[in-house]
Design a protein that fits this description.
The chain has 4 helices and no strands. It has 113 residues and is mainly alpha-helical. The protein has 2 domains: 42 residues; 65 residues. The model has no long low-confidence stretch (mean pLDDT 82).
Length: 113
């Protein structure tokens, strides 16, 4: 059986601000600073709750927009397509692009953490 005790000791230097940020995040999850750092090292981006929530919201938005686009496609197939439908499609696409960019910006700049 492998010995899983923490034997290696590492010393790090932080600025006061970095140390406060580490303490705040560790406290938020009820962890020590060391436990939180080990947690961060073992995670993949999809494991972070903030990212999962953002992606879940984006998926829901995409599903709603997809349903609306399907309704417009059915109208088009039935011969009832109008100029307003074209404007709706453009609007849905803009909404989808903006929602995707917002999530991308938050994940890329770590605003969600």
């Amino acid at each position: 059986m492998a010995d899983n005790r923490h034997k290696v000791v590492k010393h790090f230097r932080f600025t006061e601000s970095e140390a406060r940020t580490l303490r705040k995040h560790a406290k938020k999850y009820g962890m020590t600073d060391s436990d939180y750092m080990r947690f961060i090292l073992s995670q993949k981006p999809a494991d972070y709750p903030e990212i999962r929530l953002m992606l879940s919201g984006l998926i829901n938005e995409i599903n709603h927009i997809g349903n609306n686009i399907n309704q417009i496609a059915r109208k088009n197939n039935a011969g009832f397509y109008s100029h307003d439908d074209m404007e709706s499609l453009r609007s849905y696409m803009r909404k989808l692009i903006n929602a995707t960019r917002e999530v991308e910006k938050k994940i890329g700049s770590n605003e969600g953490t």
